[in-house]
Every structure is written in structure tokens, then in C-alpha cells.
């Protein structure tokens, strides 16, 4: 069932989820999985990656997760791993929209909430002179009220301080795929595979491809994503990207580490603990089981 086609207005969908916040997490993740995947998850003996992500949501509680999903606090965590050089330039962090001095910001920048997830609540400004500042502030107030963790019952996003952060806008050649996103799936500190996402500017949806850790493209796609049509050249310093992803992921049984690579300069993106909130279909379906083999529930149970 494509619930987004049934309820097209995103704010309406979030309002419904807020109204259902009283439902226990265990019941809610099963219901959401059933609605989005078409069948109930097996959470007693999960085998699929998507099922194990639901178990991960419900049972794994590492306080470091709060640090790593906060778009500002994660910067200190990255520095603690000796990787401060991969951080994007930060212009400021603010507790309210009124604290943001737009006059002091450069002509282009990125503004986002520190507590956001899933690519939500991000404003890309390429030309500040064309901005309607009052409208931007009005939207920021709406974003600040959202409890991202409640939507998918994603524990890591609960209880975060709701702030805003401004960072450098990263420009890239649209003819080569634009700003390419490399999303590394790490299990116990080792990269297994990655998404490569490109062509964000060429249509309403970016293209996605799946590669293994040697950067060989796999015959795998996601049913809910547009297939990346172009072939992406392997970055010259890809091995360094692997090393960075593995260094950043060592404290967790599983995390997706997102990086950019612009003309050989590696730039940190974010930590994601619940890819797609665990509600995505792979083609072939067997890849869901393949990924699931790498996420050990014993690592999660031992933390309880």
C-alpha cells in the first residue's frame, strides 16, 4: 500500500502519526510495517534486514546515538575520532529562528534542524537575495515543533534539543551527477555495501544504485526509489572513504555513514541508524535477507 498516495499532504500524515502517539511502540512498528510492506514483520525471530531494523528501534539503547543523530553535536563526535578535517564548514547553531542573523550569512548556505532525520527539514539557499526571510522563519517554527522520532518510533531521535544549524553549501557539477551521496552500510565497524545517490537536480527524485565495498555495482534496486541510470566513476580515494566509514561506525552494531566526495575532498554527511525507517522493498527481495545476515541481534540483545 502506498499510503503517500492515499494521504498526499505530508503535514496531514504527520498529524495522524502524532494523534496515534499513544499506541505502544511495539504495536505501532508492526502496524506501520504491515501498511508499508504488505505483511507483518517477524520480530520474534527476524531474518530480513527491514525486520531487524524494527527490532533495533525497539531494543537498542546506546546514548551515543543521540549525539550522532544531532546535526551539531555529531561534529564533536567526528572530531573525537580524529576526523575533524572532513567536517563541512559551520556558520552557526541557533536555539530559535530569531537568533539567525541572515545578513551575516553568505549568499549561499544550507539551513536545517539539528534534530531532523530522513532528509527532512532542510533548506538549500543558493541565492540569499531571493529569499523571503519571514516565510523562512515561519517554516522554521513549524519544523522546530516536530518530533521526528515519534513518526517512525525511532528512539535515537527522541529527546533531542530542537535547534537550527547553518552550513556551507556544497556545489558540484550537475553534468557529473551533482552532489553525489555515498551511504555506507556498516555492521560492527565493517562496510558491507553502499548506496550511491546522484542526479538530484535532474528530476523530482534522485537516482539510487547499490554497490559492494569494492565499488562494483550490484543488480539490486529499491522499489520505492528511482534507479540511477548513469554509471558513477569510483572515487580515487574510495579506500579512504571506506576507512572513514569504518572508523566512525565502530561503536555501534549497525549504522549507515553518509559521505560526500567533491574533487577528492571527503565531506561528512550524517549518521543514520534506521535506513528508510526499515520500510523499503528491495529488488530482488532476497537482498533484504542478505543484508539481514550482517545485522546480529546478539549485539543488540547484549546491550539491553
Would you write up a description of this structure?
31% of the residues lie in helices and 21% in strands. The chain has 304 residues and is α+β, with helices and mostly antiparallel strands. It folds into 3 domains: 1-37, no CATH class; 89-169, Dna Ligase, domain 1 (2-Layer Sandwich), CATH 3.30.1490; 174-301, D-amino Acid Aminotransferase, Chain A, domain 1 (2-Layer Sandwich), CATH 3.30.470. It has a 6-stranded mixed beta sheet with strand order 9-7-6-5-10-11, covered by helices on one side. It has a 4-stranded antiparallel beta sheet with strand order 1-4-2-3, with helices on one face. The longest helix is centred in the N-terminal third of the chain and has 13 residues, at 25-37. 31% of the residues are buried. The model has no long low-confidence stretch (mean pLDDT 90).
Amino acid at each position: 500500500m502506498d499510503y503517500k498516495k492515499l494521504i498526499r499532504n505530508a503535514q496531514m500524515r504527520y498529524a495522524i502519526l502524532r494523534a496515534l502517539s499513544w499506541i505502544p511502540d511495539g504495536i505501532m512498528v508492526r502496524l506501520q510495517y504491515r501498511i508499508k510492506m504488505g505483511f507483518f514483520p517477524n520480530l520474534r525471530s527476524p531474518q530480513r534486514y527491514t525486520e531487524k531494523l524494527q527490532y533495533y528501534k525497539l531494543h537498542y539503547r546506546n546514548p551515543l546515538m543521540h549525539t550522532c543523530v544531532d546535526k551539531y553535536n555529531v561534529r564533536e563526535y567526528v572530531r573525537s575520532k580524529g576526523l575533524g578535517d572532513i567536517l563541512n564548514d559551520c556558520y552557526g547553531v541557533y536555539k530559535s529562528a530569531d537568533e539567525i542573523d541572515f545578513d551575516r550569512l553568505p549568499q549561499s548556505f544550507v539551513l536545517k534542524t539539528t534534530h531532523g532525520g530522513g532528509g527532512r527539514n532542510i533548506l538549500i539557499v543558493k541565492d540569499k537575495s531571493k529569499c523571503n526571510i519571514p516565510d523562512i522563519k515561519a517554516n522554521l517554527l513549524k519544523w522546530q515543533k516536530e518530533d521526528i522520532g515519534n513518526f517512525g518510533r525511532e528512539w535515537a531521535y527522541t529527546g533531542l534539543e530542537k535547534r537550527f544549524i547553518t552550513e556551507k553549501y556544497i556545489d558540484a557539477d550537475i553534468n557529473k551527477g551533482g552532489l553525489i551521496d555515498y551511504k555506507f552500510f556498516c555492521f560492527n565497524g565493517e562496510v558491507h555495501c553502499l548506496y550511491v545517490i546522484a542526479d538530484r537536480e535532474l528530476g523530482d527524485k534522485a537516482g539510487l544504485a547499490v554497490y559492494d565495498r569494492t565499488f562494483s555495482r550490484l543488480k539490486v534496486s529499491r522499489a520505492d526509489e528511482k534507479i540511477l541510470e548513469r554509471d558513477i566513476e569510483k572515487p580515487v580515494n574510495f579506500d579512504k572513504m571506506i576507512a572513514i566509514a569504518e572508523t566512525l561506525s565502530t561503536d555501534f552494531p549497525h549504522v549507515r555513514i553518509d559521505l560526500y566526495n567533491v574533487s577528492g575532498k571527503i565531506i561528512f554527511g550524517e549518521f543514520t541508524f534506521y535506513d528508510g525507517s526499515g520500510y523499503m522493498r528491495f529488488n530482488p527481495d532476497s537482498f533484504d535477507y542478505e543484508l539481514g545476515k550482517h545485522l546480529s541481534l546478539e549485539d543488540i540483545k547484549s546491550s539491553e
